[in-house]
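User: Let's play a game. I give you a shape written as C-alpha cells, and you guess the letters that built it. Ready? Here's round one.
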C-alpha cells in the first residue's frame, strides 16, 4: 500500500506540474488573498485572451474538491478590463454568509467586445423570440470554447467536485447558459438562465440530468419573454426538471428580482449530478 501511495502521489505531482505550465494555476492562488475575486486570464493557441475572475473558498485547501459556479455576464459587460463582468451577481458570492454556507470556486469570465457567448447565427431567432429550426447544430463561439477549456483545466487540477458543477447567466449570459448545457450536457447539476434563450431542439441532451430555474421579465424589451417560454416548454416536454419564474411588469432587468429570491443559492447548491 505504501508503494502504491507514493506512485500515485508522484503521478499526480507530474500532472499538476504540467498544468502549471499551461494556465495560471489555482494552486498559486491559494497564497493570495481569498477576500475578493482574483484577476486572471487565459490565452488560446491563436493568442486570443479571455480575462476571468476567480473566487476561492475561505481556507482553500488544494487537497479538497469544491463545487464550481460559472457565471456568464450580459452584453453590456463585455470588454478586456476584467472588471465589468462583476457588475451583476458577484455580490451574491462575496456575501460572507453565503461564502461560509456555500463554499465554492466561482469564476466570472469576460467576453471580449463585439463577441458573444454563442454562435451569432442564433441571434436573429432569439431576439425575435422564435424557435430555431429543427436539426440546426451550433458550434461554441471562441469565447465559449475558452470558457470550456478553462473549466477542463480546473477539473484536471482535481479541485472540482464534478457532481456539483453549476452555471448561471443573464441576458447574453442567459443565452450562454443554455448553450454550454448543450455543448457539455454531462457537466452541470443545475443551471439558472436569466432573461435568456436557446436552441429548444437541443434540450433533450441535458433536460433529464440538469435541474433548471429559468427567470424572465414579462415586459422584457431586449430579449422577448417568449425566448424563455419556448425553452421551458421544450424542457418540460423532454421530461426535464425545470422551475420557471416570470415577473409580471418587469423589463429586461429580471436579474434584480431573481438575485433577491431568498432561496436562490439554496436551490442551486442543493443539486448533485448523478452520472
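Assistant: Ready! My guess for every position:
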Amino acid at each position: 500500500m505504501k508503494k502504491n501511495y507514493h506512485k500515485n502521489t508522484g503521478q499526480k505531482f507530474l500532472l499538476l506540474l504540467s498544468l502549471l505550465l499551461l494556465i495560471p494555476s489555482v494552486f498559486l492562488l491559494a497564497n493570495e488573498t481569498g477576500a475578493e475575486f482574483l484577476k486572471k486570464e487565459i490565452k488560446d493557441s491563436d493568442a486570443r485572451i479571455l480575462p476571468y475572475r476567480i473566487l476561492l473558498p475561505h481556507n482553500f485547501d488544494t487537497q479538497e474538491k469544491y463545487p464550481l459556479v460559472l457565471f456568464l455576464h450580459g452584453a453590456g459587460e463585455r470588454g478586456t478590463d476584467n472588471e465589468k463582468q462583476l457588475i451583476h451577481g458577484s455580490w451574491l458570492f462575496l456575501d460572507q454568509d453565503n461564502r461560509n454556507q456555500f463554499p465554492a470556486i466561482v469564476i466570472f469570465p469576460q467576453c471580449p467586445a463585439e463577441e458573444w457567448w454563442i454562435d451569432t447565427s442564433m441571434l436573429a431567432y432569439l431576439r425575435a423570440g422564435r424557435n430555431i429550426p429543427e436539426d440546426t447544430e451550433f458550434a461554441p463561439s471562441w469565447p465559449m470554447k475558452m470558457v470550456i477549456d478553462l473549466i477542463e483545466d480546473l477539473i484536471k487540477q482535481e479541485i472540482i467536485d464534478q457532481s456539483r458543477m453549476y452555471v448561471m447567466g443573464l441576458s447574453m449570459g442567459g443565452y450562454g447558459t443554455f448553450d454550454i448545457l448543450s455543448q457539455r450536457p454531462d457537466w452541470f447539476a443545475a443551471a439558472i438562465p436569466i432573461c435568456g434563450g436557446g436552441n429548444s431542439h437541443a434540450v433533450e441532451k441535458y433536460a433529464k440530468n440538469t435541474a433548471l430555474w429559468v427567470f424572465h421579465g414579462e415586459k422584457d424589451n431586449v430579449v422577448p419573454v417568449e425566448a424563455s417560454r419556448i425553452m421551458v416548454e421544450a424542457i418540460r416536454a423532454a421530461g426535464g426538471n425545470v422551475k420557471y419564474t416570470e415577473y409580471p411588469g418587469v423589463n429586461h432587468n429580471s436579474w434584480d428580482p431573481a438575485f433577491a429570491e431568498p432561496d436562490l443559492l439554496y436551490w442551486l447548491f442543493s443539486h448533485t449530478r448523478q452520472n
